Amino acid sequence: MTWDVEEFVRAAAATVEELAAHVDESRRGLTPVLGRRPPYELAERLGLARWIREGGMTPESHAEFLAAYLAEGSRPHHPASLGHQIAAPDFPAALADLVHGVTNNPMAVYEMGAAAATVEFEVVRWMLGKAGFGETGGGVLTHGGSLANLTALLAARAAAAPDAWAEGTPGDLALLVPEASHYSLARAAAILGLGERAVLPLDADPLGRIDVARLPAALDRVRRAGRRPMALVANACATGTGLYDDLRGVGGFCAANGIWFHVDGAHGASALLSEGHRHLLDGIELADSLIWDAHKMLRTSGLAAAVLTRRRDDLDAAFRQRASYLFYGAQDFDSAGRTVECAKAALGLKIFLNLAWRGERGLGEYVAGRYAAARRLWELGRERPGFVFPYEPQSNIVCFRYGTGDQAAIRERLMADGSFHLTSAEIGGVRHLRVTVMSPSTDDKTLEALLDRIAGTGDRTA
């Protein structure tokens, strides 16, 4: 069945019209910030079974379906969207999704998407420069930070155990991480064959940041247990708290002891673009590997994450594959040998178009603005009775408590009426409310309303 170009144009126009209205009403806060009907109820409302069984959708019925579809789910453009670390995507990145959706050039094999691959090369080169890795570094884009962490640790394993691809992962390897690290690191260790028991926690301060002074003791414990470090991971920033580890201190220790230094910069590496915040990443150039998500603070849609290594050959060593139909001859421009994915989307185009429209300065100003908004919440909340903030925020993530009641119950009430979307996290074993300021529409008025709503709700649940 071939494309009906005229029908596509009509359907695309209807789609753009519905999406534009969705973004506009979201950013003006005219709707609840999220909808989450039970699946069985939502499936009935959307008529899913009938459409699957009968087909026959037209541009007109598609518009009706899309309006109902967009009414449910979360609205990251909404000023009250303060929950997860997902971007309010800028429209240039959305255009890139449309281009890839139509052209379908999976570019990990250069001949299948030369323009897409070339754009990715240039975007990665730009990111390497920002990280301080320069022309000697290597990099690739993947579908998300979990795959990026896995890929980086594959490179670390290849450095520590060059025969592991053929012979299996040695049983004496260990991964050293602070407990505040993202769960994908422990998952990657299990996938790599280390097992969760090989993931050894590092000593940290009460807020979960690596205690650099206690790293020698941690290394001694690892060695006395008959293990050798495959990699040591630092957070930039931690997913739960938004706090940065001391990268220079950790990196210096790793360099002195011959340990692979990996930085999970999925969320916080974008601070490299903000003149007032790049100091938080001082020492990043000491890392052997770094991940950096664009679908967080670079405002692309999901998913687009970079894996960057200080030495190009380290990334090339991560994978060993044979497939006579794919890997043969001179393939200098293929990136399939550097990623789990083969059919990889044109991820670089999303980042490139955001840069092409906004420039480094524009994206840096966005990062600085959202970091400033989180700090503003901290400033406003500290002045109110009942609110306790355990730390001064370093990023656009901030945790706090209201009163002594059930913080999860407060969150659930706000979510149930659609007034605010926020999450929660434990600090020192104590549950806190957690805010991540992502939407450009979130301002002081939003933050004041949030504090008012939490106080009112918290008093009722106490």
TrEMBL record:
Residues found modified as N6-(pyridoxal phosphate)lysine: K296
One Gene Ontology biological process: carboxylic acid metabolic process
EC number(s) reported in the record: 4.1.1.86
Catalytic class of the enzyme: lyase
Gene Ontology CC annotations of this record: cytoplasm
InterPro entries (UniProt xref): PyrdxlP-dep_de-COase (IPR002129), PyrdxlP-dep_Trfase (IPR015424), PyrdxlP-dep_Trfase_major (IPR015421)
Molecular function via GO: aromatic-L-amino-acid decarboxylase activity; diaminobutyrate decarboxylase activity; pyridoxal phosphate binding
Gene3D superfamilies assigned to the protein according to its UniProt record, in alphabetical order: 3.90.1150.170, Type I PLP-dependent aspartate aminotransferase-like (Major domain)
Keywords (A to Z) from UniProt: Decarboxylase, Lyase, Pyridoxal phosphate
Cofactor(s) essential for the protein: pyridoxal 5'-phosphate
Family: Belongs to the group II decarboxylase family.
PANTHER family membership: CYSTEINE SULFINIC ACID DECARBOXYLASE, GLUTAMATE DECARBOXYLASE-RELATED
UniProt protein name: L-2,4-diaminobutyrate decarboxylase
Organism: Streptosporangium sandarakinum
